[in-house]
Amino acid sequence: MKVLLVPNYSRPVAVEAATELSQWLEMQDVEVVWAHDKKKYPNKLTSAKGSSLVVSLGGDGTLLRAAKIVGYAEIPLLGLSFGHLGFLTAGDSEQVVGSVASALAGEMHVSRRTSLDVELHMTDKETNQPEVAHHFALNELAVTRGADGDMIEFDVGVSGNHIDRLRGDGVVVSTATGSTGYALAAGGPIVHPDFKGMLITPIAPHTISARSFMTGASDVVEIATSYDRPADRSAFVDGQLVSRDKTVELACVRRGPGDIVLLDGGPSSFYNSVSRVFYGRARH
């Protein structure tokens, strides 16, 4: 059995907890692999291949990194909270060994979270050469105005059906998991993670009629930037810029070929987290 640890290296308490967890796992004859420090080794890749469990020790950002490492492989992922938000995490700093022991014993609730396959058609700003890239996402794709700050114009379509042409700061295409992230900040609803479709939420649209709406599970969302208003456009996948030195022309977003298998405390975990994080209810 092998366990991959993904700590937030910028939080010493998370690294310390990962070290203690690693020692305990090795005592159980479990092979332990650590994800690299992304800040020290930005070009190095970590693989979850062969792992029975991936453990994230940090906040939701660390869990998103762990999810990207897992990709569509459907390896169980357990998030332990050492961050500020902890919406997606199942345990906290006081429950590290106990939570991992429960996960390895198959005693934790499984929440299957829909992922996204983000297909980006871009143009290199220097060579003007076209490029197509695919990205995994657990939360969202955001197509936004670029570094020049100009408002962008884009067409929104779903499975070949044109919805509208919008102007504004951009648009967020998110999963139900991502509904509590950028999409929520842009005015979208909080959606239960069992929902398998996507949410389309305009960012600061230059109209009062544009609203967030949901798609079906098998739909493909198309965001095509308009040439009538040539402005710089950027793309962010789960909060990370993926269009550096490139301009986004078209984005096609569909459900990914595999889910994220997130381990949590049970069916009520989502509602407890919503209450705690967004409605200010203290933990009891």
What would you say about this model in short?
18% of the residues lie in helices and 37% in strands. The protein contains five helices and 19 strands. 41% of the residues are buried.
Structure description:
- This protein is an alpha+beta fold.
- Helices cover 18% and strands 37% of the residues.
- It contains five helices and 19 strands.
- It has helices at 12-27, 60-70, 96-104, 182-185, 269-278, and strands at 2-7, 31-34, 53-58, 77-81, 91-92, 109-113, 116-124, 130-137, 140-145, 152-158, 161-168, 170-174, 199-203, 213-214, 220-225, 233-237, 240-241, 246-255, 260-264.
- The strands form three sheets. Strands 1, 2, 3, 4, 5, 6 and 19 form a seven-stranded mixed β-sheet that branches. Strands 8-7-18-15-10-11 form a six-stranded antiparallel β-sheet, with no helix packed on it. Strands 14-13-12-9-16-17 form a six-stranded antiparallel β-sheet, with no helix packed on it.
- Helix 1 (12-27) links the parallel strand 1 (2-7) and strand 2.
- The longest helix has 16 residues, at 12-27.
- It is globular and about 65 Å long.
- 41% of the residues are buried.
Any key phrases for this structure?
284 residues; alpha+beta; 7-stranded mixed β-sheet; 6-stranded antiparallel β-sheet; globular
How far is the N terminus from the C terminus? Answer: 35 Å
Contiguous helical run count: 5
Find the structural class using helix and strand composition. alpha+beta
Radius of gyration: 20 Å
Helix content: 10-25%
How many strands in all?
19
Strand content: 35-45%
In N-to-C order, the SSE pattern is EHEEHEEHEEEEEEEHEEEEEEEH
- Low-confidence segments, given as residue ranges, are none
Mean pLDDT: 93
Major sheet attributes? 7 strands, mixed
Structural shape: globular
